[in-house]
Amino acid sequence: MEILNNLALGFSIALTPQVLAYAFIGCLFGTLVGMLPGVGPLTGISLLLPVTYGLNPTIAIVMLAGVYYGAMYGGSTTSILMRIPGEAASVMTCIDGYAMTQKGRAGPALAIAAIGSFIAGTVSVVGLMLLAPPIAAVALKFGPPEYAALLTLGLLVLAYLSSGSTLKMLLMALVGLLVGLVGIDQMSGFARFTWNVPELADGVGVVPVAVGLFGISEIMLSARSAGALKVQKPRLADLVPSREEMRASAAPILRGTLIGFLIGVVPGSAHIISSFVSYALEKKISKHPERFGHGAVEGVAGPESANNSATSGAFIPLLALGIPSGAVPAVMLAALMIHGISPGPQLMQSRPDIFWGFIASMYVGNVVLLILNLPMVGVFVSLLRIPYAYLYAFILALCLLGVYSTNQSTVDVWIAIGFGVLGYFLRKLEFDTAPLVLGVILAPMLELAIRQSLAMSGGDWSIFAKRPIAGTMLALVAALVIYNLLSRGWRTRVGLEEK
Amino acid sequence: MDLSDTRITAVIVLLLGAATFALERAGYRATVFVFLLVVLAAVERRPPWLSILLSGGFALGSFYLINTVLRVPLPVSRWGW
Predict the structure, then answer these.
(1) B38 at interface of A, judged by CB pairs closer than 8 A
(2) According to the model, what pLDDT value does residue B58 have?
(3) Owning domain of residue B43
(4) Which of A120, A206, A224, A343 sits in a 20 to 30 Å window from B7, CA-based?
(5) pTM, to two decimals
(6) How far lies A261's CA from each of A304, A367, A378, A380, A486, in Å?
(7) Most A CBs within 10 Å, among B12, B15, B69, to test the A interface
(8) A483 reaches B (C-beta below 8 A)
């Protein structure tokens, strides 16, 4: 009953015309920055932060949150239509979303992404409202060993992402981990592999790597066949998913929502990891895993729901404990502190208007996103009518703009070009480049967590087994490896017997 | 490995490299305008007037949106453009 009263208070704030208008602006802006390659939610929120100085704190956080989940949706649009992830969480959507586009099913892919995002966003806000205190309490128990074990588990999931050779996949993950180690050593301050280039001190950014591997290399591979892209007329009927597609998407949306929410609570790049995990899970449990990579609607529904759901989960440690779980919540924490608000356990008591106004605005924001995006799906699909000769020229210019504007650095653009060339040859050799991106993202976190753990134990590796949560997760890692090896061996034996 | 598209790939890499080199020297607007013009008019052999119109429109429009409206600094040449 108390929750309902609080929620009523929240809606009384969130449904005022001023808050609604700023939620709309945030969602629209977020969708646009999510669509632009290289300009993700972090850049979008950073850009809007100065605009919020003159606003009241509730409106400020409502607008910035709108940018966050708007970008999650917007990122899927360019992934599906152009195989360019607007931001890192949309990397997995590229695979089957773009394959659907090539099969002439761009409209249903965009519609499923919108519906999945809406359901995941709404359901996960309910979870945020009800489960914030107990889940945050569990996440609070995570120290470096648990974090290292969780990241190892995340890396292991790569084994399930490979559409081809496991060895090739592992090699890609290893290359990603090595690239992720470039930059200043976080423990000793020693510069590694920076070649006296100051811009490399902060490491190789995920944005230039992802734009290079997924954007520029795609243009290189497809530019020659400029007329090959099948153009669709943006009729409303084309956007409606078939009954079969809706049925196939239902369970992945629900699973993605749950995965995203749970992973979102844990510090790290939750929305990125959750979409990888969701994709891997859907592929693993599918009766026809060979469809993945060739336009399986489950490969769009699951990851898109997971990354939207993770945004709500990521707010739990921020609102309940005052601990940002990633870069985006950290910027939002800064925004709240500028307004004199300290998020934490006291926030619900001291400023219920902000806490519950924010919760209610997330429900409203999800409706705004659905209203905003479903009618505009036709506009996005109409992009396909532009001859590819024009489209690829502007995509290249957008890549240039997006990568440069992230850090105002031409070094990032050179890196993107380098990874574009690398991606071109890797894809010619049938390597899956997604594990490379995840390796780059996870390497600094994993290294820091392992070294902090070893510092805690004085170099004793058994710390990972002695801590219950870390030990359980590592046991899960071992079980998954053994299961994978055994099932692979069994399939090989059956294959031999059949021969 | 099929390398029949090597020519267009080399052209793209060369043009992107040239654009990156010119970006902070010639400014965003001039660099992107020339880059798009070369791709559209020279590489893809599209009508010159349309190529000029689209390249100019994109270079100026994107600069206005990103630099002026969103206040994300984009490079400007020493001559102010």
Answers:
(1) no
(2) 94
(3) 6-69
(4) A206
(5) 0.70
(6) 12, 19, 30, 28, 31
(7) B12
(8) no
